[in-house]
Amino acid sequence: MLSAFVRAFRTPDLRRKLLFTIAMMVVFRAGSFLPTPGVSYTNVQECIQQTSDGNSLLGLVNLFSGGALLQLSVFALGIMPYITSSIIIQLLRVVIPRFEALHQEGQQGTAKLTQYTRYLTIALAVLQSTTIVTVARSGQLFAGCTVDVIPQAGWMTVVLMVITMTAGTGLIMWLGELITERGVGNGMSLLIFTSIAASFPGAMWSIAGGSGGIGKFIVVLAVVVLVVALVVFVEQSQRRIPVQYAKRMVGRRMYGGSSTYIPIKINMAGIIPVIFASSLLAVPGLIAQFGDATQGWVIWVTNNLVSASSPLHIAIYVVLIIFFCYFYTAITFNPDEVADNMKKYGGFIPGIRAGRPTAEYLDFVITRITAPGSVYLALVALIPTMTFIVLGVGTNVPFGGSSILIVVGVGLETVKQIESQLQQRHYEGFLR
Length: 432
Known about the structure:
Blueprint: H1 2-10, H2 12-31, H3 41-50, H4 59-64, H5 80-95, H6 97-104, H7 107-138, H8 155-182, H9 187-197, H10 200-209, H11 213-236, E1 238-245, E2 248-250, E3 253-255, E4 259-265, H12 272-288, H13 296-306, H14 311-332, H15 335-344, E5 347-348, H16 356-391, H17 401-424
Antiparallel strand pairs: 1-4, 1-5, 2-3
Helix pairs in contact: 2-8, 2-9, 5-6, 5-7, 6-7, 7-8, 8-9, 9-17, 10-11, 11-16, 11-17, 12-13, 12-14, 14-16, 15-16, 16-17
């Protein structure tokens, strides 16, 4: 594999794409440390040392921003507004017929949906940046911190901070599109990969050099390696449904007669169910922050719904992941649409009649294959967290199940793209 990377850098066109991608990732990380105007960088660092990321209300967003959120940097929002807007646009396709019609129009309709996604991203960035600045001004962003992260919190300063964070989100969106167009891999996915991977060395060092010691560090490392191996094995697995295309005459030429297959992954929903489940479970904690810490319902919510070690929290987390696996798979994969396209071009599954029987068969296969996929996703999301709880390391380490899923998935996809480009230039790929 290392020799394949060397050959990739020896190819002028591919080398230029790789260097451009690396340069954009460096720019993204540099913006994560650039403080927003009006923020005291010294006070922010002091508050980060006084408090823990696990107690933050915005831990999930901080993870996807590579730690930029808690530093209130220019790129504090990270890529989360774009992810949220993309998911919302996908869900609206089921509700709004206009969006579904645009999706079926091909490239022109997809470009229109992308434009809507950009507009929604900016709107969400304004909303989220306003929320973050408000939480930072009230002192709830760093609970228990004795210094002010925004010393002069006038309305002009607040407006400037909101504009700066929103502009940072727009710049991140532009960087991601540049990587997709002129670099290697999907730009947005690579930026998420960069944000999460940047937190790994510091977290591993805190476990090895802190109270954990070398023994706990080795156990955590072994668990992470096992989970990575499980993720690689399952993400590469797929159910291949054979498809046969009938021969047809067009003029004097014969078309069709070929055999192919429909690849159905075990985990078709990806990381989306984990994000949805984590976001919903964060809502009770946000609501509890507005109540008195001595009230009974606040104590119950904190102990049972907010605490990651609570049996009720774990049970609800697993149920939500399984539910969203089926929900998101049903939205992204439409058996009726696939069956209609196959029938239109003369394709059929051997032993299954074209049309409605094909759609019912595909729905049956998807339902059965999503069951082990949802269980796998729940296990991957829980195993690292439960290991950290048992070892007493804490639940705020950045390489939980969702992080590993993203890093491994993006890494595999990027390697496949480099592999395909090497094969196009008649070089040996990664696999011999």
